[in-house]
Description:
This protein has 557 residues and is an alpha/beta fold. Helix content is 40%, strand content 21%. It is built from 15 helices and 23 strands. Strands 5-2-1-10-20 form a 5-stranded parallel beta sheet. Helix 3 crosses helix 12 (429-457) and helix 12 runs antiparallel to helix 13. It is globular and about 85 Å long. The structure holds flavin-adenine dinucleotide (FAD) and nicotinamide-adenine-dinucleotide. Flavin-adenine dinucleotide is lined by residues 90-96, 113-116, 122-123, 125-126, 159-160, 211-213, 231-232, 275, 380, 382, 418-420, 427-430, 432.
Amino acid sequence: MFRPLATKRLLAAGSRFNSSLARAAPPPPPPRRSLWSRVFRYTAAASALSVVTAVLVIAYKVHQESNPANQEPQVPFFPNGQKKKTLVILGSGWGSIPLLKDLDTTLYNVVVISPRNYFLFTPLLPSAPTGTIDMRSIVEPVRTVTRSRPGEVIYLEAEATDIDPTNNRLTVKQSTTVKSGHSGKDSSSLKLTPGIEVITTTLDYDYLVVGVGAQPSTFGIPGVAEHSLFLKEVSDANAIRRRLMDTIEAANILPKGDPERKRLLLVVVCGGGPTGVEVAGEIQDYIDQDLVRWMPEVASELKVTLIEAMPKVLSSFNEKLVDYAQDVFKQTNIDLKTNTKVMRVTDSCVEALCKSANGLEENVNVPYGLLIWATGNAPRDFVRTLMSKVAEQKNARRGLLVNGKLLVDGTDNIFALGDCTFTKNPPTAQVAFQEGKWLAKHFKHLHKIDRAQYLLAHPTTEPNVDVARTQKQLQRLQEKERPFVYNHQGALAYIGLEKAVADLAWNGWSNLTLGGTLTFLLWRSAYVYMSLSIRNQILVCLDWTKVAIFGRDCSKE
Ligand code: FAD
Ligand code: NAD
């Protein structure tokens, strides 16, 4: 009995003592975190928040891209009775697709015609033959673009072959391996003539946009068309890959020192513009970073030669960058032959005229196992046909002549953009892209003019039409629109060895020239940013990661 009572008292005394202590000295504050630990905590929280936001944004964009909303169907007339005009867009490249992406397709009955049912992100095409980038990662199906527009867009996988600019009629052809036995579709503007393997269609248009690009130039040099490979389309990149793998495997069968083995292991790239430089750099990377691990003996013999007719490569870039690129070539063993103009190509050899420093010319023969031809652009057959039918185009040689509003000279309803035109701007994706966006706005403007003109002619078709106001509005619209102005933002090119060159510009002035590994990262970021869809952006990043981890695939499909 006594002990518990004493214990209770002791405990009570203890707790009184403790509470008086507590009153006298409050518990010490938790130890203050160091500045670094706070910075770390905030950075971690901010990073986590950014990752969550990025995931949500990507998920939203993927959902939006893969679930297009319903579209307004095509109709012959607007509710006020005004005719809805047919706008035919030729091509699915850098000019036509940005136009389509920005166009208000509820204002026109839009028909897109292109033999290629996808958009190709050409800046990354030189990375495709070696497998740095998978072909599928740089293509965007046309139908994902046409289906995402507010108004219905018809897409025909065909190529324009002829045009009657006087009667606004286009002839298009689809070459198919499916034997056609159907009787054809009949409508006022679309007539199909059943054929065996070729379907020919005529199509009427109110406005036509020609965005058919260009074809690789051969300058009529004998043997080029028969023996070389170009780099313009996905099929070209596939062909280069197959030929590269074939020559490597064929050479591998032959004994070392065999002259045929030596020839097979010579890759010649003709044309030192950005296409030639980039593809030469990519092939050399493949040799140095991948082939050397799996077939070291072949890799040590495989040589890349770049032939350029002018004294320097990359003539459109700043001189400092050109010298830098040429230095990088020396480090990577790319054999650069400048001042060397190819005159003839045989099935195993390039024959060229080489100008030496003292101005003397000598003939040189460069044997090859794989020849890639990249000497620029020439007009496509359809463009030549159009030129031949418009008197004002008789002096056009390198492309269609257009005015400041991209209207083809000598016509009043045919527009042209991109590589199929000849203007003061270079034939680049950047120019075609900006022209496409400008044309989308221009067609909105043209619709406003058409509508105002219709309302003035038929004022009773809509309630409360103020004729005087509409007249003023029409006058303003006709006077207001400014012509297309190109805003050059610079140029980027990959030169191999994980280095790139950049000639950046603001408002048309060249301000900053960069070269090296950081520029290579800028090059990559810029191209991911410029890829048309989130799907392409993700796939391209995954391809680069895959190559960084596993290397490039050297199997032949
Ligand atoms: P394209 O993009 O070539 O599109 C033409 C379209 O018309 C295609 O869809 C084609 O199938 C279609 N077509 C063809 N014939 C017909 C027909 N008869 N009827 C209907 N449709 C037809 N530029 C840059 O600014 N930066 C770069 O990094 C860059 N890299 C490049 C890399 C390579 C390998 C190449 C080849 C080019 C590169 N370019 C680059 C240039 C750029 O790709 C072109 O300037 C750009 O593609 C031009 O756009 P376009 O719409 O005029 O033609
Ligand atoms: P290009 O016209 O830019 O260069 C072709 C090169 O081939 C020229 O340097 C020319 O002197 C040379 N050439 C012509 N005939 C020759 C011959 N017989 N023998 C040896 N050399 C000869 O062509 P490209 O590189 O295909 O580019 C086409 C267009 O696409 C250009 O406007 C270019 O700017 C653009 N492009 C840009 C990039 C980029 O910005 N990264 C990449 C590729 C293409």
